[in-house]
Write a structure and sequence with these properties.
heterodimer, A: 652 residues, alpha/beta, 4 domains, 6-stranded mixed β-sheet, 5-stranded parallel β-sheet, flat, B: 345 residues, Rossmann fold, 2 domains, two-stranded antiparallel ribbon, 15 helices
């Protein structure tokens, strides 16, 4: 795209700022030169012509880069059964022909190709794992289409970590128009500018300097995965080498790996030293989208002015680093700028980020918090959509299909085959004597083409396990009236319960409310590590917006319910609401509202417990328990174990 | 899956000493009981496991489906147990390292009726599964903490008994399935079932190097490998051969290791101090210490070896106290200091 093009699309606020779309397209163009080396692309976009157009353009770019016949381009459905990836037996064909027919595995066909995974946010781990391995061994490049909503679980981290690029097209107004994308596809810049030298760029060794800068930058962003640095370095080198316009004599057609190695060897030895521009591109396109911390928040105007700064204090930065079990107290801590003896990386990162239009960075920063929270609950939390609730086959059992059950073909066949000779012989006898009851009319003698004879007894169905998980949602009043006395015990109870749940494979979520509103501190998780971290960060003090807390709890409960979980809601409060949902003080109205929301929450949970944490049984809390239809447990000297026991009693 | 592509050499791994040592120890003495590798994404967990496979010396095996040991008398498959018939010829084969993918079916893991034979001749023949292929080798489960429960159940039985017993689809088969269990995963994304956790002899922790130079070196070597895998492996061939020789020597020395009584008592005291359940921890600790000493070319197990392996042998066996904030590694470290005295001394 020319500069005039970008000017038309999006008014540039200043000459210093680059167009984020231009930037992304540039990275994608480099990706198209060696898709397998980049692992792939995480594409967040709604289904529609715009995404279609972008993929079309990318495919053309890959073809052009390979000089005509590009890498293969395959679509893969998210519900593909994992064993289809490997070579197996083609059941239908085998039955038809009466001899085993092999079915080539999908991965075999995909080797050397770009695979477009549809609705990647719904992919099961069983499918994700072999795909991740295929990306690792450079067999395929994966374009993962992600249509998840902001508060939904995203695709498995296992896959995302392996995809170098990440592109968010969900804000369609900021994107190229369809026409512009179509034009791009018609006349890719690559062919227009470099008709002959448009070959793979050599992945020559990086210069030390660039590598050092990227390693440091990754640390600044709190990125622990070394894969990210590799990917960033790859992009920077490609960018630098392209700028050098390394002419390649060899025409390389076909598989990316081959051509890359060929050209790479041809020019090997000459380290490519990425320039600041190349590093900036890599920082913006590879590191920034996966950042856990945004360094250099010097411009305070990016902060939300509504959020009073002190309330951010209790949030330790470790909270943004879900990958880091304990924030390491070593010199490499990303929070510690003194560990960088040389300020150049800071300047580089600053330059890379400041090239972005104002506002964009703040938006990304706000997404990071949400992602960190989601990551805390991921893993086992992921199961809510992909393992729990939804039935999954765990083998076969003998029986005729009833209701929704599916016939297990393989098992049925295995049951029938050993009897074929006998059955055919008896069928023949029946035909000969003319008194066959169950046999089908057939004139031919048993041959290899004889159809397989099934008896009703052979039938096997998928043994499905519809796991009804169970999740306990804690709703903890962290307001001033309760905070100090009970917060510690509430934390203890959550951990104890989690230890129980852990044995039973149940999950725990934690909603807390105080001050201006409610917060999902711990999305449904089974991870003790994640829970502990959320709990140490649990801040206390401020008003008591019970209604807001219940409202959030109801949202969480509804989501779990949809996923097929049994929900237990445990409320720890003294029941003295003093803030209504719109943030206005007033006990009367707040209490009224709290009871109303409690009635909405009530049907969403299978079990409900309200633990009154005030010193004497509090009428307000009793009223609230009644509205929630919850078991009321006054617990003036709440002890973690006592709370746990009463919950166990209530759910039994 | 990566058969055609050379594997990143073990000796080219940067840092991650605990993981490297843990893997080597498990390779020297299969009785240690395998390794669980816990850590962040992108820290080279799977790379290390695959690298280990490539460096291991080949094993002598009979040409049967289970690679039975030619001179062994126990732990053999049915065919090799038969006294009358002469056993098939033995040859040197690479140590099998079998991946158990998260999405594997029960049939694929346990083995099932051979469909092809059924169709062609109507014969009922058992077709061995992944467990059979892993016999005498390694069974590697990436993201082991995300493994489905019903698959975990299969593994738990087999890992304990060393044999795979199938009674289904009118099959009745028992075959040896002795393997070193290697798992990796990120504990942030889900916990391991305690029963499976217990099957691992060692648990090592791996973290992204926080040292900048080390990080740069990691990426530099990866890039060099990606650019020209063959040349990179050739450059490390001598180191690999040396490590292989070291492993062979260590294995040979294993039976002759000296573990003096005073040290044995200290090892027991350490387990007692930590309240690790059962004897398994103690056994793993002693075996691992022996293997570590053998790896270093020593004949006598020293206190240093005990200190080195204690965290990996014990950290996953501590009784869980959910209210105790201290992580298990530091609890082990504290106990070591109490029982064995200051580590620095």
């Amino acid at each position: 795209m020319s500069s005039s093009d970008s000017a038309r699309m999006r008014p540039s606020p200043g000459a210093a700022h680059i167009d984020p779309v231009d930037d992304a397209l540039r990275a994608l163009e480099l990706f198209s030169r060696a898709p397998l080396s980049f692992g792939g692309l995480h594409l967040r976009a709604w289904h529609g012509p715009r995404r279609q157009a972008l993929l079309g353009w990318l495919r053309r770019a890959c073809e052009n880069a390979a000089g005509g016949a590009g890498p293969g381009w395959y679509a893969l459905a998210h519900h593909t059964e994992p064993d289809q990836l490997e070579t197996g037996t083609d059941l239908a064909e085998s039955l038809r022909l009466g001899r085993p027919v092999a079915r080539p595995g999908l991965l075999e066909r995909f080797t050397g190709s770009v695979v477009v995974l549809q609705r990647g946010e719904r992919v099961s781990r069983g499918l994700a794992a072999p795909l991740a391995a295929a990306v690792d061994s450079r067999r395929i490049a994966l374009i993962l289409l992600d249509e998840s909503l902001p508060d939904e679980e995203g695709p498995p981290e296992m896959l995302l970590d392996r995809l170098a690029l990440s592109l968010d097209m969900r804000d369609e107004s900021a994107w190229r128009s369809l026409d512009a994308l179509a034009e791009l596809a018609r006349a890719p810049r690559a062919t227009a500018e470099r008709p002959a030298a448009n070959r793979f760029l050599p992945p020559a060794p990086s210069g030390d300097r660039g590598l050092l800068e990227l390693c440091r930058a990754a640390m600044l962003f709190g990125i622990n995965s070394m894969r990210r640095v590799e990917q960033a370095s790859m992009l920077a080198r490609m960018s630098a080498a392209e700028a050098m316009r390394v002419p390649s004599g060899e025409a390389v057609v076909g598989e990316a790996m081959v051509s890359e190695a060929a050209v790479g060897k041809a020019v090997a030895g000459e380290p490519v030293e990425p320039r600041a521009n190349d590093l900036s591109l890599a920082i913006r396109q590879v590191l920034l989208p996966r950042a856990r911390v945004i360094p250099m928040m010097a411009d305070a105007e990016e902060h939300d002015p509504l959020e009073p700064p002190p309330s951010e204090e209790p949030e330790p930065p470790a909270d943004l680093e879900p990958q880091n079990a304990e924030p390491p107290p070593d010199p490499g801590d990303p929070q510690d700028p003194s560990s960088l003896p040389d300020g150049s990386t800071d300047r580089l990162v600053e330059a890379a980020l400041s090239a972005l239009p104002p506002g964009l960075l703040a938006m990304i920063a706000s997404q990071i918090g949400a992602r960190a929270a989601a990551a805390r609950g991921s893993g086992s939390g992921r199961e809510s959509a992909k393992g729990r609730g939804r039935a999954r086959s765990v083998g076969a059992r003998r029986g005729r299909p009833r209701g929704q059950e599916r016939v297990h073909l393989l098992a049925t066949l295995r049951a029938a085959l050993p009897w074929q000779r006998l059955r055919q012989a008896s069928a023949q006898r029946a035909r000969d004597t003319g008194e066959g009851l169950a046999s089908q009319p057939s004139s031919s003698r048993p041959t290899a083409r004889e159809p397989v004879r099934f008896h009703p007894d052979d039938l096997h169905v998928h043994r499905e396990r519809r796991r009804r998980g169970s999740t306990t949602v804690f709703v903890v009043d962290a307001s001033g009236s309760t905070a100090l006395q009970r917060l510690a015990e509430a934390k203890g109870a959550v951990e104890l319960l989690l230890a129980d749940c852990y044995v039973r494979r149940d999950r725990v979520a934690l909603v807390s409310f105080r001050g201006a509103g409610a917060e999902l501190l711990l999305p449904p998780t089974r991870s003790l590590v994640a829970a502990r971290r959320a709990l140490t960060a649990l801040p206390g003090g401020g008003g008591s917006p019970i209604a807001a807390g219940f409202e959030l709890a109801a949202r969480v409960a509804a989501q779990l319910d949809r996923a097929g979980d049994d929900v237990t809601v445990v409320v720890l409060t003294d029941g003295r609401a003093n803030l209504s949902r719109d943030g206005l003080p007033g006990r009367e109205r707040a209490a009224d509202e709290a009871r109303r929301v409690a009635r909405e929450l009530s049907p969403l949970a299978t079990h409900r417990v309200l633990i009154d944490t005030s010193v004497r049984p509090e009428p307000a809390a009793q009223a609230l328990a009644a509205a929630l239809a919850a078991r009321y447990v006054p617990m003036p000297f709440a002890r973690a174990r006592a709370i746990r026991d009463s919950i166990a009693a209530a759910t039994r | 899956m990566t058969r055609s592509r050379p594997v990143f050499p073990f000796t080219a791994l940067v840092g991650q000493r605990e993981m490297q040592r843990g893997l080597l120890i498990a390779a020297i003495d299969p009785l240690v009981g395998g390794v669980l590798i816990l850590g962040d994404r992108g820290t080279g967990k799977s790379t290390a496991v695959r690298a280990l496979a490539a460096v291991l010396p080949p094993i002598r095996a009979v040409a049967c489906a289970y690679r039975c040991e030619p001179r062994a008398t126990a732990g053999l498959c049915e065919r090799c147990t038969g006294k009358s018939r002469a056993r098939p010829a033995a040859s040197d084969v690479p140590v099998p390292v079998v991946d158990l993918p998260l999405g594997a079916t029960e049939d694929r893991i346990l083995g099932a009726l051979d469909l092809e034979r059924l169709m062609v001749s109507g014969e009922k023949v058992y077709e061995p599964g992944l467990l059979a292929r892993a016999n005498r080798g390694f069974l590697y489960i990436d993201e082991v903490n995300l493994l489905e429960d019903h698959l975990v159940d299969l593994l738990i039985d087999v890992a304990a008994s060393g044999e795979n017993r199938i009674e289904r689809e009118s099959l009745s088969v028992v075959h040896p399935a002795r393997f070193v269990l290697v798992g990796s995963g990120n504990p942030e994304e889900g916990e391991l079932r305690p029963q499976l956790l217990d099957r691992f002899g060692l648990a090592v922790e791996v973290r992204t190097p926080q040292d900048l130079d080390q990080r740069v070196e990691v990426v530099r070597r990866r890039e060099a490998f990606e650019r020209d895998p063959e040349a990179f492996c050739a450059a490390h061939a001598r180191d690999e051969a040396a490590l292989r020789a070291q492993l062979v020597a260590a294995r040979r020395a294993l039976d002759k290791m000296v573990f003096d009584d005073a040290l044995l008592r200290q090892a027991a005291a350490l387990c007692q101090q930590l309240g690790t359940d059962g004897l398994r921890g103690e056994l793993a600790l002693m075996r691992a210490a022996k293997a570590a000493a053998a790896l270093d070319g020593r004949r006598v197990v020293t206190r240093d070896h005990l200190i080195e392996v204690a965290p990996m042998a014990l950290r996953h066996r501590l009784r869980r106290d959910p209210l105790d904030e201290t992580d298990s590694s530091s609890r082990v470290a504290r106990a070591i200091e109490q029982v064995l005295g200051s580590v620095a001394a």
